[in-house]
Design goal:
Layout: H1 2-23, H2 42-56, H3 60-72, H4 105-118, H5 125-139, H6 159-164, H7 173-181, H8 187-194, E1 201-203, H9 204-212, H10 220-229, E2 239-241, H11 253-259, H12 266-269, H13 278-286, H14 288-302
Antiparallel strand pairs: 1-2
Bound molecules: protoporphyrin IX containing FE and 2-acetamido-2-deoxy-beta-D-glucopyranose (2 copies).
One 2-acetamido-2-deoxy-beta-D-glucopyranose binds at residues 94, 99-100.
Length: 323
């Protein structure tokens, strides 16, 4: 009897605790005006660096948004991905989803150097990366969103989370849905965010199985074109555009490609495989404006994932190092 009552009370207390956790705003202290007094030229300074890097190499637009994504999904948008190996740090850069794949670190380093010149010790690497990802998307023709500021930089990395918590090119649909749900995203938001594969490139080893397995879910002409650049063995790092139509600009061709069985990765095509995401792909393929506004909203949400604020974390002087 007594223990039953105790259990009930404990259960109620536990559920209140979880409701409390759930309702806690994770971004309480991020704001659009955070650096208005301390670094008024921040936005234009970052944008100049991003523009220069994209003019030099158009692929960089995609690389920067992916860098931001892989930062935010691992212990929040805290620039943890930017830290190099050191005696106290196991770099996330070397985790399998990132190693020899994620790029754009040098662009963020240059933007940081430029920002340090005008307001030393004030702006976090995490905020610079967040602004850069948005600017890159806009410069590639994509939608804009408001980046709230005030993130601080981590003093730690999480190699295990970087290895296991990021989506993988062999994942099935349920795994993709779960990975994004774990970070608070709906299925629709997951499908919208996948539209970032509207620009950028992928290496042969990530799509080889798809183009050689003769599956009924790939367009035959597309498969044979892709096989020419990606032999059944060797040339693992040979690149192909994620969006075969407009590989350097941001638009909804990604979804149109999927409708024609011309998604490059299996995880792209799987979004149209008879499951809960089919209707969303169809919708985005027909309605570019809907896609763009959903994408922008989902990116704003991603860039608010578990930031360090207030006295937590630090402002790094050099993004790749704690000293
Ligand atoms: C849905 C789950 C996802 C999977 C399984 C996935 C997987 C991949 C893979 C395998 C590559 C090629 C990497 C390489 O060959 O080195 C890639 C590239 C890329 N991904 Fe994703 N991705 C996903 C979601 C996202 C999201 C949410 C974004 C951004 C919001 C994103 C942005 C990009 C971009 C822009 C590239 C090209 C980068 C470049 O050219 O440097 N991806 N992704
Ligand atoms: C990362 O890639 C390099 C090759 O560039 C390789 O030597 C190294 O072992 C890889 N790191 C990890 C942790 O797998
Ligand atoms: C599958 O694709 C390979 C590579 O192009 C081709 O040689 C083979 O004939 C195909 N098999 C079938 C059953 O279509």
């Amino acid at each position: 009897m007594g223990s039953g009552k105790y259990n009930a009370a404990a259960a109620i207390a536990t559920s209140f605790f979880f409701v409390f956790l759930f309702c806690m705003p994770s971004n309480a202290q991020l704001s659009t005006s955070f650096y208005d007094q301390t670094c008024p030229d921040l936005q234009s300074t970052v944008k100049t660096q991003v523009r220069t890097s994209i003019s030099a190499e158009r692929r960089m637009a995609g690389s920067l948004i992916r860098l931001h994504f892989h930062d935010c999904f691992v212990q929040g948008c805290d620039a943890s991905i930017l830290l190099d190996d050191s005696p106290t740090i196991q770099s996330e850069k070397r985790a399998p989803p990132n190693n020899n794949s994620v790029r754009g670190y040098d662009v963020i380093d240059r933007a940081k150097t430029a920002v340090e010149k005008i307001c030393p010790g004030v702006v976090s690497c995490a905020d610079i990366l967040s602004i850069a990802a948005r600017d890159a998307t806009v410069l590639a023709g994509g939608p804009s969103w408001t980046v709230k500021l005030g993130r601080r930089d981590s003093t730690t990395t999480n190699f295990a989370q970087a290895s296991n918590g990021l989506p993988f090119f062999r994942d099935n649909l349920q795994k993709l849905i779960d990975d994004f749900a774990n970070k608070g995203f709906t299925i629709r938001e997951m499908v919208a965010l996948s539209g970032a594969h509207s620009f950028g490139q992928a290496q042969c080893f990530t799509f080889r199985d798809r183009i050689y397995n003769n599956a009924s879910d790939i367009d035959a002409g597309f498969a044979s074109t892709r096989r020419r650049g990606c032999p059944s063995s060797g040339r693992d790092t040979k690149l192909a555009p994620l969006d075969l139509v407009t590989s350097t600009s941001f638009d909804n061709n990604y979804y149109k490609n999927i409708m024609q069985k011309k998604g490059l990765l299996e995880t792209d095509q799987i979004l149209l495989s008879g499951g809960s995401t089919d209707d969303i792909v169809r919708d985005y393929s027909k309605n570019p404006a809907t896609f763009k506004s959903d994408f922008a909203a989902a990116m704003a949400k991603m860039s608010d994932l578990s930031p360090l604020t207030g006295q937590s974390g630090v402002i790094r002087r050099i993004c790749s190092s704690l000293t």
